[in-house]
Amino acid sequence: MRSFIAALMLLMAGAWAAGNGTRSNPLTVESAEDLDDLRLAVITGTAYKGVPVPDMGKGMFFKQTADIDLSTKYGREKGNWKAIGPFAGSYDGGGFKISNLFVDEDVNVAMGPALFGPIMADSDDTLYFENIVVDKAYLHVSETTGAIITQIVSGVVVARNNTVDLEYKSGATAEGSQVGGIVGNVVSDWAGFYNNTVKGSFHVASVNAMYVGGLVGILIADGNFTGNTNEAKIIVSGDVSVTAGGLAGQNISSTVIKDNTNKGDITVETSKGLSFIGGLIGVSTVYGYRNTYVGNVNYGKIEFTGRDASLGGLFGLIQGDSTLVLDSCINQANISYHGAGSQEDVYVGGVVGLWETTVGSRLQNFGNILVENADNPYVGGLVGYVREGTKSITLKQSVNSGEITIKKEPAVDGKIAGLVGTTDSLEFAELDSCTNMGDIEIIGTADQTLVTSEYAIVYSGVRFQANACKNEGSVLFLDGTIGIPTPVVAKSMEIRVAQVGEGRITLEIPGMESFAAGRVRAGVFSYDGRRLPVNLDASGNLLHLEGLPSAGRFLVRVSMPSGNRSIPVTLH
After folding, report:
1. pLDDT of 96-132, one tens digit each?
2. Per the confidence metrics, is the pTM higher than 0.90?
3. What CA–CA distance (Å, rounded) separates 24 from 20?
4. Using alpha carbons only, what angle is made at residue 88 by residues 83 and 89, rounded to the nearest 5 degrees?
5. Which one, 106, 177, 296, 401, has the greatest CB density within 10 A?
6. Cα dist. 482→6, 41, 346 in Å?
7. Residue 29: how many CB atoms within 10 A of its CB?
């Protein structure tokens, strides 16, 4: 009898140690064999560690208690990992690693390339995926997926405090697929992502119309994204079009997206379609939905080589109505566009490439913008192009500190401005307490058909207002050959050449009654950057420069309290 009781007590103790699947006493997972057993129990509705598991593990809780190395059972010579799912339970990784998750469609058929998925929860349940560490994952697949979850299909799901280090390579039939470091797509009732980190790399090659995000491929469910970080680089090449973002490829939801950071570089080389690339979100399409973007920062460089593209330090394209909140978002990284072949659509902005919303506040760009060999670019230190999908644009207390450099030989059309590149036909455009501190430099043939401005270039008929704005950058002033209808250059200081003679020029600043002594500076520079010695004399609103060479092309740069301006001058 004593031996029977002792055996029973030992059995009960073992069952208790394994847990019973409740939140307060989760079932434990400590080996690759346990994960296989869990998959079997979830799929078949049988027992796991002696505890009955309902279909899909509905409502049950599991917790990892040791590091797990999947290479003991899976790999190139052993076969692919298979996802646990469909799954309707919760999993706590306990901060322990799951290493060497391996799925390669060239080895055999990929049967769910993530750790879990798809996730299907009842609306009454909240499922949690937390403290999971996926280390050295390798995914070469065509399916929609992430490293932790393939798809979140239904219910309320929270993913928090997870870390992923993966190498992703697109499969041969991945066209249209959605890929993220945490999950491929989210279409459930609500989803929260908090303090997750993704590292590693995504490689997309010769696959069209893919959506790639550091955390999520496509977000459709409403929810909350707060405190997440992407450090994984995204690399795209081949005859493809792609939508990519450091946080998500595309957002079609009503979500609070706050205090997230992207540190991963995005490099795209393609000659097909129109690609949307953003340091935070590739495309945010939220008409009719309330969306909040606050305190997000991008440190990842964006480099594009190809034809048509919309590039933004935070958003490739952002859409929304007056309910959208865009506040205190910052780009710290350089953006480069390298044209290859003919182009129709080139939009580059320090914060937003294509803008179709109403108001942005306290936006900042510190990254330099380089655009070379673009036929007709629209470039702005904050916003590249404002499309007619919105009736207006208002920027408040926003600053561009990045330099804009345009390179093209022999000539380039386009609209380049320190804050807003150009607008379509709108009701009004307003800049309130905004500052441009970035220089605009044009490198190439002097006979450019560009329009440039310190602030904005707006479509004819658009009501424009700049309140308490200032320019501290040196802006090459060009009014080029412009199509019909003619845009309006919204600039802080107008300068025109009033007279050109033998070794001298006279500049006029309309509206200026006289030059304040000691507050106006002027210099003449050759196109290779050399400063030329000249004599300066001011009277009224005229500025006389004498002592120039008798012939040649020069840049005259004028600095005064109302702003800085550079204009090209040719002497014959």
Report:
1. 999 999 999 888 766 678 999 899 987 678 999 999 9
2. no
3. 9
4. 90
5. 296
6. 93, 69, 17
7. 27
